[in-house]
Design brief:
Length: about 150
């Protein structure tokens, strides 16, 4: 009896601590998120990269696809999903962080060619944007292992 009471008290205590700490929750899109206040919006300059990087391995280990909706950010974890909004025209797109900017590149975020086109700045090569963290995408299975191709 004493063990059962102790187990219930401990279980309730853990639940209260988890709820009070602002632990992750899932949004309607199925993306786990941290507490909304944990990542404030960022405003800065976005640039884009395309042909010169297409097919190269990114910092996350994925191959860069200039037609994919991905981006490079210096600090956000890989597989973070962000909403990027062009402050000049109000256009926005959701992107997944798969890379890090090259040293000395500057700016807040580097987006794929497709993302720049969606945001309306592929001709200008840069734009002032707002970056809002939406959550984390569950990591997809990695590429097949070489032993699977033998």
């Amino acid at each position: 009896m004493r063990k059962q009471i102790l187990a219930r008290v401990c279980g309730a205590s853990v639940a209260i601590i988890v709820l009070a700490s602002g632990a992750a929750y899932a949004d309607p899109h199925g993306l786990p998120q941290s507490a909304p206040s944990s990542a404030p919006d960022q405003i800065g300059v976005a640039t884009w990269y395309g042909e010169d990087h297409d097919g190269r391995v990114t910092a996350s280990g994925e191959r860069f696809d200039m037609y994919g909706l991905t981006a490079a950010h210096a600090a956000l974890p890989f597989n973070s999903v962000v909403e990027v909004t062009n402050m000049d025209n109000g256009r926005s797109v959701d992107l997944r962080i798969t890379d890090r900017p090259e040293p000395g590149q500057g700016g807040l975020i580097v987006v794929s060619k497709a993302a720049a086109a969606n945001l309306g700045f592929s001709e200008a090569h840069s734009a002032t944007v707002r970056v809002r963290v939406i959550g984390l995408q569950q990591q997809a299975a990695g590429p097949p292992r070489s032993s699977q191709w033998r």
